[in-house]
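Subject: Predicted fold for Quercetin 2,3-dioxygenase, 241 residues

User T.R. writes:
Posting the sequence so we have a shared reference for the thread.
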Amino acid sequence: MPATVQVRRAAERAVTTTSWLDSRHSFSFGDYYDPENTHHGLLLVSNDDRVEPASGFAAHPHRDMEIVTWVLEGELTHQDSAGNRGVIYPGLAQRMSAGSGILHSEKNDSSTRPVHFVQMWIVPDQIGIAPSYQQHEIDEKSLRDGLATIASGIPGRDAAIFLHNRDAALHVARLQPGDSLDVPAAPYLHLFVTRGRPALEGVGDLDEGDAVRCTDVDGRRLSAGAPAEILIWEMHAKLGG
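User M.O. replies:
I've generated the structure tokens; pasting them so everyone works from the same file.
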């Protein structure tokens, strides 16, 4: 497979808007379907969502999906049919395994503040597993000390939360002015800029909401001239094997 690097700019994303939701889709989702843009590697969904105060997603079903949520601003309240309840805030990693089937809701309980978060879905290794929920706070030092691994199922990797997929890991990089680091070398990488204007070697400047999809690219240097945060999916397989 030849090495490729594809930049998907923020303005190119499909958008779903309602009276309480602004959702920007990196891949086909909901009413937006593009057969040429359904996934990258194992990543099926990367939604950049803003939910207005005192609103949110009512209880709805999922199955056979690993759903990871990373909050950028505000707080998001999760509740599900397995009895799990948690409040997700910046710096807290959260994963719900839908497994054999689960109902969950996601609400912004604040009466004044919107919540801004990125929600990402990958497929599990096995279908029909028992639904489960995990959340873990990541300390600020870890977030600023190179790559912090939010979630991973790769054997031998330490991570804040566990993924039921042995070929995937999600990292976050928080860069301060002058910082730089090498992104992982993997068959499939997906970089998403949550804030700031970092630069990727061979690509140049990236803006908030931009994504980069890489295949078979050796570790490239990521740098920042101002504070920035980037979510990086490292994947060693793709859908269908």
